[in-house]
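Changelog entry: the Carbohydrate sulfotransferase record was regenerated in this release. Current contents:
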Amino acid sequence: YHQLHTRETRLSEFNQTEIKAMLGSYTKVLFVRDPFHRLIATFLQGMGISPSFSSFVQEVLDSGIHNSSVAWKPLVSLCRPCLIQYDYVVMFGFLRQELGHLLRRAGLAVGSLLPELTDSQVQWTYRWLSEQMFSELSAQQKKQLSHFYRWDLAAFPFSSSFLSD
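Regenerated structure tokens:
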């Protein structure tokens, strides 16, 4: 889209006609990840200053949705899947399979471009980490987190998420 190449702009700076034209000219791919896994990754990367996962989660909850960091903000508020018709939604944990499909659809050679991904190991590791981290949280924190991410849990099939229980 011609205006996009002149300077970095946010989608909200365009009017509805421009947004529709712009979005219609691109293949739109949304990468999604279980919100609880996003919290764990953010904590492990040291993006929170808390000494424990439980206190980090409390910081997240206290910040609220509108003041939260992009690292843990609900995806629905970041990516607007109800307003933008994405062509593909790629789930973390199925990257190898889904990225291969996307590359084939784009007419690209899958083998040379696709990084080595071990989805089953990633899924097992996050399952184990989730069990450990979830056990640190109080019942109230678990309930509040489920509420905080309720729209993500409704919009995407995170059936095995600890937050959807």
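The chain has nine helices and two strands.
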